[in-house]
Structures are given as C-alpha cells and as structure tokens.
Amino acid sequence: MAHIDYFFSVVSPYVYLAGQRLEAIAAQFDATVDYKPLDPGQLFGRTGGVAFADRHDSRKAYRLQDIQRQARKYGQVLNVQPQYWPVNAAPASYAIISAQRAGGGDLGALVHGLARACWAENRDISDDAVIRDLLAQSGFDPDVADRGMLAAAETYAVNLEEAVSRGVFGVPFYAVGKELFWGQDRLEDLALHLAGAL
Predict the structure, then answer these.
(1) DSSP string, 109-169
(2) Crossing angle for the helix pair 90-102 and 107-119, nearest 10 degrees?
(3) Which helix (H) or strand (E) holds 175?
(4) Torsions phi, psi for 121 (to 5 deg)
(5) CATH number of 3-194
(6) Domain-by-domain residue ranges, the chain?
(7) Could you tell me which residues are beta bridge partners of residue 35?
(8) pTM for this one?
(9) What is the C-alpha separation between 4 and 173, in angstroms, rounded?
(10) pLDDT tens profile 143-168
C-alpha cells in the first residue's frame, strides 16, 4: 500500500486550490495519507524561499494572476484579498493534528474546509469558534481542539523539521518515500507515479 506524506499550510491559496484531489487520488490507489501542517514562513526562511511580503512586485503580480486562473480552471470561488490573511495558522494546524490523532471524522474535509474558510468565505481560521465549527462539519468532536494542545504544538514543530530534512521547500508538498511533488499542479504527476507510469 502506498503512503503519502502531505506537507501543507491552510493559509496557502494553493492548498485551497488543491481542493480534495489528493484524497481522490489516495482513494483511487488505496494509499494512506499523513497530514503534516507546518509554518510556511519558517519553511521558506530555512530553505531559501522568500516570504510573500518580501517578494518582488513581479512575483506578487504573477501569483495573483495564477491563483485566479487556477480557481477558474477548477471552478472554485476565490477571494484574492481575504479579510483574514495573513493569519496565524497555528491554532487551525493544532486542531488538524489533534483531529488526526483522535480519528472519527473526515480529515481531508477539515483541511479543505479551513483553507476554504480563509480563501473563499472570509472567516478567521485562527478563531476558536470557526475551528470548532469546521471540526463539527467534518465529523469530529469540536472539543478535540482543546485536547492535546501541547502535543499538537510539538508535532507542528516536528513537521517543520521533517519537511526541511526531506527536501520540502514549499506548500503544498506531497512525498511518497523519496519521490517529491511540489504544488497542487503536480497532483496529476503524483497519480501517475502511484500508477507506476511516472
């Protein structure tokens, strides 16, 4: 059985634009997925990337065009200037980590729901009420966000260290062993790899 390690942050527009295609691919190939939220700012700083605010204007302009094209391509609503962005992703990430440990719900739906809340619904994904609502919508006990907070914070830091050690430098990033796929636009390649065709 194939296994996919998914390094991501729900504050990334490209994580939102990935939708739940990863979950569809995993189901198609009977693969397991380990969700590994991390701090993208720290990841960029440690791997030669540049924080969005510090990028050249031409890069910012291209990103704006690209995310709008990708949203149209996949039929997704996208607010290019969310009311709550940038936002602290740690509380939502801790909830994802705690939910993954607890089980009982749809983790892919939770991850996509949090990203959608930021990029399409103008909701503050650092707000406890928003997190609890999305946990419930995804079939988890909303109180899971309050349990194991310290362990979740530790895992969040460990995810970053693992990402750096494995050659991850952006989000979303998908790893199958030593095979790495960066960006939601590489999901087709991930599927081809799992099929043994790439």
Answers:
(1) HHHHHHHHHHHTS---TTSHHHHHHHHHHTTS-GGGGGSSHHHHHHHHHHHHHHHHHHT--
(2) 160
(3) strand 173-176
(4) -115, 0
(5) 3.40.30.10
(6) 3-194
(7) 6
(8) 0.96
(9) 10
(10) 998 888 889 999 999 999 999 999 99
